Each structure stands twice: as C-alpha cells, then as structure tokens.
Amino acid sequence: MVASIGEAPLGYPRRARDIAPAMLTPGGRILDSCLTPDIAEATSALENVTYAELAVGQSAGLVHTVTQNDIALFATVSGDVNPAHLDEAYAGASMFKGIIAHGMLGGAFVSSVLGTRLPGPGTIYVGQQFRFLRPVRPGDVVTATVTVKEKLEKNRVILACTVVNAAGKPVIEGDAEVIAPSEKIRWTSHELPGVQLIDHHGHAALMARCAGMDPLPVAVVHPCDEVSLRGAAEAAAAGLIDPVLVGPEEKIRAVADAHGIGIAQFRIVDAAHSHESAERAVALVRAGEAGALMKGSLHSDELLAAVVRKEGGLRTARRVSHAFLMFVPSYRKPLIITDAAINIQPTLSEKLDICQNAIDLARSLGVETPKVAVLSAVETINEKIPSTMDAAALTLMASRGQIRGGIVDGPLAFDNAISRDAAATKGIQSPVAGDPDILLVPDLVSGNMLAKQLTFLANADAAGVVLGAKCPIILTSRADSVRTRLASCAVAVLAATKKG
Questions:
Q1: Which homologous superfamily does the CATH classification assign to the domain defined by 16-197?
Q2: What pLDDT score does 1 carry?
Q3: Is the dihedral of CA 156, 157, 162, 163 positive or negative?
Q4: How do the domains of the chain map onto residue ranges?
Q5: How far is CA 324 from CA 118, 273, 452, 489, in A?
Q6: 201-497 CATH pick, 3.40.718.10, 3.40.50.360, 3.10.180.10, 3.30.1330.60
Q7: What is the value of pTM for the model shown?
Q8: What is the pLDDT of residues 57-74, one digit of tens each?
Q9: Which residues contact 102 (CB under 8 A, 6 or more apart)?
Q10: For 304-326, how does the pLDDT look when each residue is reduced to its tens digit (9 = 90+)?
C-alpha cells in the first residue's frame, strides 16, 4: 500500500502471495499464492509512472478474490472485530444475511493499485474519499481501478477510484489525492514473511460435532485441586459431560468453595484417597453409571493401574494406548499421533492394537477410511532399524485384514509421510504419503517429542484420550488450557458414542 502523508514512500510493496486467497486448515490458516496473473505481475516487477508521464484518463487496476481469511487478517491487523465480518450466526441474522468484508478491505485494494501500478512506487497518499455501495462477501471477485482525473500543482494528482464485483456493479467509489513521484523507479519487490492465522477452528468443530448429544456421564477421578475440578465444571457447562466427582468429599467441597466453583448439581462419590478414588471410578463404569473416566489430581499411573487390573478393571482384548488429536495450522485436516503417552517401547503386536485403536477413533470422528502412516527414520526396510520392520509388517497385516477400517502404509519418514512433494522426490508411490490421518510413531519418546514440538513450535491445538479400555479415559495435564480440556472431553464423548 502507498505511504501516508508524513511517511517515507513505499518500501516493501505487497507480494502476490501475501494477499492471496488463503488455504483453510483445521487449526489455523496459511496465506498462500493463488492470485490472478494480473495482480501477480503488478506486485513483482514494479515500475512507476511519474507525474510528468501521467495523463488524464490514464488508468490501471488489479483483480482479487476475497476470502474469509482476508477478512480475518484485516480484522486482526485493524482491530475491527465487528461480528458482521466474523460471526456466521450474527451475520446470518443481519440485513446482509451473511458475512461481509470490511469496507476498508476493498479500500486497501485501491491503495495497492496506487502504490504498485499507478502512479506506483514513490506515491504518497494525501487524502481519500470513499462511498460504499454494495457488500463484498467471501468468494467475490473484485476489480479495483484508479483513473487520473486531474493533475494539480506540486505533483498532486486526483484519481477516480472504483471497486466493482464480478457482475460489473460498483461496490466502492471515490476519489484519491496523491503526490505522484517525480523520479522514475524500477524495482523488484522483496519477499515478505509468510502470514499465518491461528483460529482454533478444529476445537470448535469438535464441539459442534457434539452439539445435540446428551452429556456423557463421566467419573472424574480425585478432582482435589482447582485445575481438575474447574475442568470438569467447565466441560459440564459446555454440555459435554455429566460429572460424577469421585474422591474425598470434604476436600472436593473445600476446593470448590476456595475457588468459587459451583458443584452443587454434581453427584459426589466419597473416597478416602486417590487409590480408592480410582477403584471406585472404575466400579462406576463397570456398573454402567459412567461412560468415561477423567483424570483429576492423582498420578496417571494410579488411574491406569486400576483400569488395567485383571480383576475388576476395564481391560479388553486390546492393548490400552493414548492418542493425541492435533490441529496443525500448516496441515489441512486433523492429525492423530499415537502412542505418545503410555506404551514406551511397543512390540509389533502392541502396535497392531495401537493402530486399530487410532483407526476406530478416527472413524468415530467422521473419517470414513483413515490413512495411517507408520513412521520410522527412513522409508526403506532396514533390519538394523527395527521400526522399519514393524512398519512393513503392519502394512502387510492391514492388507490381510488383521487391521480393519483403514489404509496402512510404512515405513515412512516424517517428511514423506506428510508431504506429497517429498514422497514424489523419493519416488514413493503410496495411498498414504502426503495425506495421513494418523501418524503411528515407533515409540513413546519420538511420539511425545513430535506432539509437543507441534504444540509449542507449530502452534498446534491438541486433545487427548486413552483408548482400548471398556471406556475412553481423558488424561488431562495441569498445563492444558481450558480449550484443550474441553476438546479432550469432546473426543471422549465421540469415542464413547462412536458417532460418525
């Protein structure tokens, strides 16, 4: 965009990829390059039109497809978070019957023409007058055009500005006054940093999938600190669970009173200590009084010991395993990582159960035929790397029906599991490479590191659940945000009801 009066002339014109229609991903959005050749040409190699070269009637323009990401980014930068631009429900009930773009977003396209094409680099804005005539919606193709109306003294120029939609109807009209450059400038634009929007749509989609379902009765095991008790109360307020608080009643009530957490409506099952809390919670599931377990302020090992006990536990024929459901901004769909929390160095037979648990979870989340990438350090079978041997065996087992409901392929290194281009470079032909729903890791260490790297370095949102027992188990961490706790509850609800 052009510089405002009092600022230096334009230094870094907007690159095509930085105002491109964006790609929507579950956990966030990355702006990528998909502009028309017209706007791409105008913003890469720039040459201005000096004041002396300008003639009345001379014009230039750019074409742009407006996206919801453009609108969200404009709202983020400007601070204009009017729900007419961002909230589907609010906007749907408004006079416009849907989300519309900010008026000044269209004005920004006019600024782009002035700053990159006519007059171009070196232009300084003096003033702008706009009339906003029609709404612009996500998906609309608009053309911004400026036309020289009048040349004034001291290099000042008046330009007519219009933005029209695909039907040729004006959405914005007005006049701009600029100081046109006096010297010729030919310049190739610099590459600007990419822009990433993190919007937590994945967690919102999970919550929406649970809408209309009855709250799941959940035994909350030993919720004797603020974090675990508040997490249960918030999940109940969101309509996800109907908590049964299992633990020392006096202590639970003291925590609730100390932190202002309302628990009057919740059933409390008194237990003397954490071990007894775990045992009584498991008994509630066995009796059909709870459909899931939720970890409170006891150690995970205490809870899982009660779950896997041969007598009176919740064991099935399956190995118990943990799955992280990740929403990674740079990946286009939810991604399950397993096992990153329970099985330290799983054997081949244990990996079979881990794989089947994850497939069943993905199907409960609405993935019809989940794709499983079995990870290792390399994509070739090497007897010196046992995880490659396991991966090859799991692939064959899936082809023989020992793993059901999904497509399994491995070994795959992380790069060619996630990236089609990386797989193609290595000549890998695979129905999974570049498009996995599930990453099956070689061991707990690699899986835990991968999940935490995605969370802390890639801004991924996560939710987690333990699978393979007679009910889902929500293992929350003290470091988990409210959003993560609610998402984990939603995953458990969907896994318990096998919706989808």
A1: Hotdog Thioesterase (3.10.129.10)
A2: 43
A3: negative
A4: 16-197, 201-497
A5: 52, 29, 10, 12
A6: 3.40.718.10
A7: 0.76
A8: 999 999 999 999 899 999
A9: 71, 74, 75, 78, 80, 82, 85
A10: 999 999 899 999 999 999 999 99
